Amino acid sequence: MTGVTSKRNLLNSSVDVSVATTAEIEQKAPRTTADVLQLIPGIYVESTAGPVSNNYSVRGLPGGGQSFIMLQEDGMPVLYGGGGADEYFQNDITIERVEAVQGGTSGLLSPNGAGATINFISKPMNFNEAEGTGRLTGATYGEQRADLFYTAPLPFLGNNVAFMVGGYADSTKGTRSSPFTYQTYHFKGAIEKKFDNGGSIKFTYKRWDEHDPYYADMPYRYVNGQIAGVSGLDTQLGNVLGSGFANIGVPVSCATGSCIRNFSASNGIHGTGNQYRLDLDMPINDQWRVFARARFLQSNWDFNGIFPGSGSSGNGGATSALNYLTPGASPIDSTLTAGLAAFPGTTQFGIRNLTTGQVIAGSNVAALNALNGNGLLQQTVLNHEYKATRDLGTNFGVKYDISGNGWSNSLTLGGMYYRVRQSDDQSAVATLVNGVSNGSAIYDVEALNAAGNVLGTLTNNGMLSYGNWGAGIWTSTLNSSSEYFSDELAVLDEKLRFDFGARREDVSNVLYTGNSAAVEAPVPPGTVGLAQTVGSTFDGTYTRTQATTIPTSWTVGANYAFTPNFAIYARYAAGNETNGGNNLNKPTRLGLSEIGLRYGGYGLVAVVTGFHTTFNDQNYAYIQPDNLAVQGSFTADLRINGVDVDATYRPPFAGFQAFSLNVKATYQQSKLQNVFLGQLVNGQTVNSAAASQYDGNIVQRTPQIMYSIQPTYDIPDLWGAVYLRYEYTGKIYPDAGNGFSLPGYGVLSVGANVNFTPKLNLNLNVYNVTNQLGLTEGNPNSGVTQKVVNGYFYGRGITGPNALVALTYKF
C-alpha cells in the first residue's frame, strides 16, 4: 500500500490513505487525469484547463498550482518537482487503481510530496496465459479514443517471463468548441522476470506525442449580484479561441536563434517524450531484501495558450469597441496617441477584422455596438513557452523485517538521487486585441481619415506589444540526493503500531538566466504597427546563480486497533517542497497534524480524519497586470483546520445489498496570517495595499467545503450498475485580497455500466446534467486583489452537459 513500507491495510495503518478502484474510476468517467484526483477526499481539483495543465491542491493549501502534491506511477514520481505532472503522464487503460496518501509518510517516501502522493498503479502482467482489454471511447464533444492493454508470457525467454503493451490513441476538439482538432498517442511496453525466490526485475519503456487544447479565463458579468455570461460567448461550451489564432509570428530577439517566434494555437499544448525505467526487487534471505527503481524522462513541451483577461486594469481591457477607438477613454489610449502622431491626417480610428477584412470606423457607432452581439473588445495574451526536460530519478535501499511473539518490526533504509536539467523559453509573449465571442476574431487597429480611408495600421496582426512572460529565457541543472529511513513497529499482538522516519535531502540548483540587452532590439524590417521593438531583448548571454540547501523531513505516527473493525490513529509530519527551475528560493516547510477514526462493519466502511496544517513564509508570486514582464510577490503564514470524511455504506440486509452509498466530504478553514508585502522588481509595492488588510483572509482558490454523494444500484446477476453522482464545491476567493468571491456550485452526473457478457461492457456517463454554471478561478494574472470592472470580470468555468460512452472488451 502506498505510504507504508510493510504490509498494512486501511484499518491498521497510521497514515491517511485512500484507494480508488477500477470500478470507481470507470464510474467517475474522468475527462482528464486530474479528474481522477476528485476521488480522493481533501483534494481540490480545478479541472477546467482542458486535458492537461490543471490545478489541484490538498488540505486547504492555496489553489492555482500543484504544490506539495506528487503524482507517481508505480511508486516513482512522474517529475521530481511534482508540478505539471499531468502534462507528462496520462491515466489510461493500463492503470488498475489509484492509491493516495495525504501527509504523513508522503513527504518522507517521495520528494516534494509533503501534502499528498497520488500513485497510479499499473495492471499486473499475466505470466500464465495471454489476456487483454480493448476500449473504444466517444464523447458528445467529438472525442474519439482507443485504449489497449495486452499481456502474455514469453516462454522462449525462460520460465516466469512476461510482457505487456498498451496505451491509447486519441483525437479530440476538447470539451469546449474549437476550430482545431488535437491528436495524441501514448505507448507503454514492459517486460518482467520473476524469480523463484520471490524477486523480480522489470524494464518499462514509454513514448508519447500529445496535442491538447488549453482553456484559460474568459469574461463574465455580474447582474444583480448574480454571475451571468456575456452575449455571444457561451459560458458552458464556448471558447474565445478562433481560427485566427492558428499561427501568429511574434517578433523576438534574434539572439534566440530566430527573429520571429511562431505562436500556434492549432498545435495547442504539444508534448513529446520518452521514459525508460528499471525496477528491481530481490530478497536476500527471509529477513532482508533489496530494492531499486530508476527512471529517465526526456520531454520537449511546447505550450501555446491564449490568456484573455491578462493585461490592463485587471480585466483585460474588456470594454466597448467604441471606447477602444475613443482617445482618452480607450484602454489602449497610449497607442492611439502614438497613432495620431505617426499618421498625420488621422481624424478617427477603426478596427479591421483579420478574418473577413472588414473595417469598421469609430464613427460607425451602430456597427461597433452590434459587434459580436455585445459590442465588446478585449486584450488577450499569447503565451508561448517551450520547455525541454531531462529528469533522472532513482530510489534504492534495503528492507529488514523481523517478528516475534505478538510483535513485528519493518525497517527500510534507502536513498534517492535526482538530476533534473531544464531549459525554458517564454519570450515573444504578445498582447493583442480580439473580440468577445465564441471563436473570436483578431482585430487590427487602423488610423482613418474623415472619409474612413485607412492611413496606417497601429497594430501587427492585432498585437499591441511584445515581450517576455516572467524571466523569459533560462536553463537550470538541479541535483538532489536523499537518505531516508522508515520504521514500522507493531506490539501487543500487533494491535498497537508505532511508525517513525526521516529524510535528509541535499539539493543544489544552478541557474543560468538570460540577460536583457540595455537597448531593446528593433522588430524585423517590414513589421507593421507602432511597436517597433521586441520588448525585453535577450542578448545571448546568461547570468549564473546557485542555491544549495539541506532540508529534512520527518514524521511520527501511531495506530491502535480497539477491535478487529475499529481503530484510531494519530500522526505528525514536517515536510518541505524544494524549488527548481528558475526558482532559487529556500524550501517551503509544511507541518501536518492529523487524527483519524476508522471503522469497518455492518455494511459500513468509514474514515473520519481531523487535520491541522501550518505553513509559514509561503511566497505568493504574481504577475503585474499592466506589465507582464514584472513579477511581484508577498509572503504569508497559513493556519488550516479541517476534517475529511470518506464513508461507504451497503446495507447488510437481505434484499438491500444491491444498494450502496458513498460520501466524501471536506470542511476546512484556511486563513492567511502575518502577511508581509514584498517588492516588485521595479520597486512598487503590491497594488499599494497595506499588509493588515490581508491578515485573516481566506486563502485564495480554496473552498471551505467540498463533498460528493454517489448512490449506486448494482443490477442483479452481475449485469452492471446505475448511479448518480453529485459533487459540490463551495465558494472560493480567487485572490489573496479577497476582492470578490466566486459562488459555490453543484454538479450532477448520471451513469450506467452494463455487462452484455462477462467480457463485453458498456459504460455511459452524462456530466453536468442540470447545466450548472461553475467557476474555478478568477483572473490569476490580475494582481493580488481582483475586482469587477464596469460589471465584468474574468474566470474559468466548468463545461456544460456532455456525455461519454465507452465500450470495453476483455479477451
Number of helices: 6
Report the sheet-strand fraction: over 45%
The percentage helix is under 10%
Summed over residues and divided by their number, the pLDDT gives a mean of: 92
The whole-angstrom Rg is: 28 Å
The major sheet is characterized as:
22 strands, antiparallel, barrel
- Uncertain ranges: 679-690
Give the overall silhouette: globular
How many E strands?
Answer: 43
Distance between the termini: 29 Å
Helix/strand-derived category reads mainly beta
List the helices and strands and how they pair.
Layout (H helix, E strand, L loop, with lengths): L15 E5 L1 H7 L4 H4 L6 E4 L8 E4 L10 E5 L2 E2 L17 E8 L3 H4 L6 E7 L8 E9 L4 E10 L7 E12 L9 E13 L5 E13 L5 E6 L2 E3 L19 E4 L8 E4 L5 E15 L4 E21 L10 E2 H4 L8 H10 L5 E6 L5 E3 L3 H5 L6 E29 L2 E19 L3 E7 L7 E6 L5 E4 L5 E5 L5 E19 L4 E21 L21 E12 L2 E12 L2 E12 L10 E14 L2 E20 L7 E19 L9 E19 L27 E11 L4 E10 L15 E11 L4 E8 L7 E3 L14 E6 L4 E9 L1
Parallel strand pairs: 4-7
Antiparallel strand pairs: 1-6, 2-3, 4-5, 6-7, 8-9, 8-43, 9-10, 10-11, 11-12, 12-17, 13-14, 13-42, 15-16, 17-18, 18-22, 19-22, 20-21, 20-25, 22-23, 22-24, 23-28, 24-27, 25-26, 28-29, 29-30, 29-31, 31-32, 32-33, 33-34, 34-35, 35-36, 36-37, 37-38, 38-39, 39-40, 40-43, 41-42
